[in-house]
Amino acid sequence: MPNNANDPNRKSWIEVPKNSDFPIQNIPFGVFITKEDVITIGTRIGDCAIDMGALQQLGYFNGIDLTDDMFMQDTLNDFISDGKKTWRLVRNRLAEIFDENNSSLRDNKKQRDVVIFKMDDIEMQLPVQIGDYTDFYSSKEHATNVGKMFRDPENALLPNWLHIPVGYHGRSSTIVPSGKNIRRPNGQTMPADATGPVFGPSKLVDFELEMAFITTDANVLGEPVPIDEAEDYIFGMVLFNDWSARDIQKWEYVPLGPFLAKNFASTISPWIVTMDALEPFKTESCEQSPAPMKYLQQKDKHTFDINLEVSLQPENSSETVISKSNFKYMYWTMAQQLAHHTVNGCRVNSGDMMGSGTISGPTPDSFGSMLELSWGGKNPIKLNDGSERKFINDNDTVIMRGYCQNKEVRIGFGECVGKILPAFEIK
Ligand code: MN
User: Fold this and answer.
1) How does 301-327 read in b/e, with b if 16+ C-beta sit within 10 Å?
2) How many angstroms does the Cα of residue 292 sit away from the middle of ligand 1?
3) Measured at the alpha carbon of residue 139, what is the angle toward residues 136 and 142, in degrees to the nearest 5?
4) Do 139 and 233 sit in the same domain of this protein?
5) Whole-prediction pTM value?
6) Distance, CA 371 to ligand 1 centroid (Å)?
7) Ligand 1 midpoint to CA 13 (Å)
8) Which domain holds residue 119?
């Protein structure tokens, strides 16, 4: 089925500001709540949120096989379950409805008033009910940097790393949409000069620049997803800030890996950009040596050229860009991650979320965490307001942005924003 929604020549009758992440070629999916407390599934063009529940009630999706209340729900899970063909039909239809030459909705003010909202008048929600969340560790630069700091500079990469897309199971209960404030976590740490562990607010709160992909129902329990099919089960992607407490992590992670240092919060950008929309930005992935095992082998282009950027903004001050990276720096692809995740028969469901792992590039200004940017606190980062940071202070805001750009079109993810509040006081 043709992917008409990607036509770079199409213009919308909704005004799209220059350099917007959301031209009519994007058509992401999300969930929002209006001032009247109506929750709906929607999409976005320019700075307008579009109520797809209202569109469905008005008959704009007639002819597409959908349940009657498909878009009047508070999660995208059912829509995602319907599979790739339906996603494409709906995206194509939305492109038609908002094409500058289509007068149906364009010239019907009464309908427009119930369908179109200004972004300022709505609030974005979590787009899916996330059943399970897995976080990978798939950037070679990041794994090497962390290995150097936490373990052994001579053997930074552990022996399994080049053979397995290493990952761990996280907690979906603490994934929040952009804009929600995050409390600094309390926990146990082992300071370098202490004789035993101490308790209190983490002193080394960090961000992790990641992206995450959202799956549809991929397999039945006991059966793997073959690598050549894996991409068909990926609905789309979001920006992902996997907040981390490095001092808690260092003390707790042996021998079973991250636990409370990671599960206090992760922030996602609220619009899921579909793999269909990202198709024009496919690019070669990293050379893999040694060659991965057969169930992980792929030919051709399987990653995406997505520019990523992190800013830090102290309270009442301006932003400083502290990192510029790119999703294409990942060593393992999403298809390899999904094939590996299911090779033992592990079931993957609609709405599951898979984090890429921190995406660090090859140069120091492209590292994806404060841990790496300040090299464990040895090289403080200078901000525009003259202050310095080794890690994140209370009331600092971290803003992640990501977009793809070619000569014809820019497809972006908007923002993934979170502010760190002081720790909960434990008496
Ligand atoms: Mn992570």
Assistant:
1) ebbbbbbbbbbbbbeeeebbebbebbb
2) 23
3) 105
4) yes
5) 0.97
6) 12
7) 40
8) 4-124
Residue 150's pLDDT band, with cuts at 50, 70 and 90, is confident
Q: Let me know whether 145 and 247 are in one domain.
A: yes
CATH number at residue 374: 3.90.850.10
Residue range 69-111, pLDDT digits in tens: 999 999 999 999 999 999 999 999 999 999 999 999 999 999 9
Q: What is the pLDDT of residues 255-299, one digit of tens each?
A: 999 999 999 999 999 999 999 999 999 999 889 999 999 999 998
* In-domain check, residue 427: no
55 shares a domain with 160: no
Query: Measured between alpha carbons, how far is 145 from 375 in angstroms, rounded to an integer?
Result: 9
List CB-based neighbours of ion ligand 1 within 5 Å.
135, 208, 242
How much is the average pLDDT of 27-49? 97
Token readout for 15 is: 């005004």
115 and 147 in a single domain? The answer is no
Give catalytic status of residue 142 as yes or no.
yes
**Helices assigned H by DSSP within 165-309:** 246-252, 275-278
Q: How many residues does the chain have?
A: 427
CA distances 233 to 84, 275, 376, Å, are 8, 10, 38
* Site of tokens 């950037």: 139
pLDDT tens for each residue of 224-265:
999 999 999 999 999 999 999 999 999 999 999 999 999 999
Count how many domains the chain has. Answer: 2
